[in-house]
Design brief:
The protein is mostly helical and 207 residues long. It contains nine helices and no strands. α2 packs parallel to α7. It is found in: Cell membrane.
């Protein structure tokens, strides 16, 4: 039988809630985007994150996760690319300027960019791979992935919206260029700090 079983649903909801609401690369960037661009302009970024996690979960469900089992070097390559790209994003955030910029100088992350980012987001991979192997909403691996993708979408989207909303609420406080620069540098450092577990693993100290 491949039907979804409701007995594991509370565990799936709790997992999606905890992993979506806690700090990570996505939420750090959404907080910064809310401050720098406002909630409305951050909506494509928000939607792209949600869609990207769903696509990642479904891809794992159709067998992508098995590729990492059979070819571990692929996951190592992914981790290296993730670290490099997140360091680049941290630099972009940390060197951001004032809120009121000339048209075309800066912009929030676009929908398709946010989708693509999930493929190099270490936390997103942790979320979907853990969900695929520990949350059993169905005895069918594929159906389980579909069910968890739906849970991530329904539970995760309000959680990430809260981060962008909090950033938007801080816009007036951070309208001062000096305070904004300090904030952006702090967000860049938090983004770098989120790489700590991956960096330890790559350096051979992650156990």
């Amino acid at each position: 039988m491949s039907f979804v079983t409701l007995s594991a649903l509370p565990a799936g909801i709790l997992f999606a809630l905890v992993t979506s609401i806690t700090p990570g690369p996505n939420n750090t960037m959404l907080l910064a985007s809310g401050v720098n661009f406002g909630f409305r302009r951050t909506l494509p970024h928000l939607s792209g994150i949600s869609a990207g996690v769903v696509l990642l979960m479904l891809s794992v469900g159709i067998g992508l996760g098995e590729a990492f089992v059979h070819f571990p070097v692929l996951y190592t390559v992914l981790e290296v690319v993730s670290v490099a790209y997140l360091l680049y994003l941290a630099w972009r955030i940390g060197t951001s300027g004032e809120l009121k910029l000339r048209s075309g100088e800066r912009r929030p992350m676009r929908f398709h960019e946010a989708i693509a980012f999930q493929w190099v987001n270490p936390k997103a991979w942790m979320m979907v791979l853990t969900a695929a192997t520990t949350i059993h909403l169905s005895n069918s691996f594929g159906m389980n992935a579909v069910a968890m993708a739906a849970v991530f979408c329904v539970i995760g989207f309000p959680c990430i919206c809260a981060w962008a909303g909090f950033g938007t609420a801080m816009r007036e406080v951070l309208s001062n260029p000096k305070r904004l620069r300090v904030f952006n540098i702090a967000m860049a450092l938090l983004l770098v700090a989120s790489l700590y577990p991956v960096a330890l693993k790559l350096l051979g100290h992650g156990g």
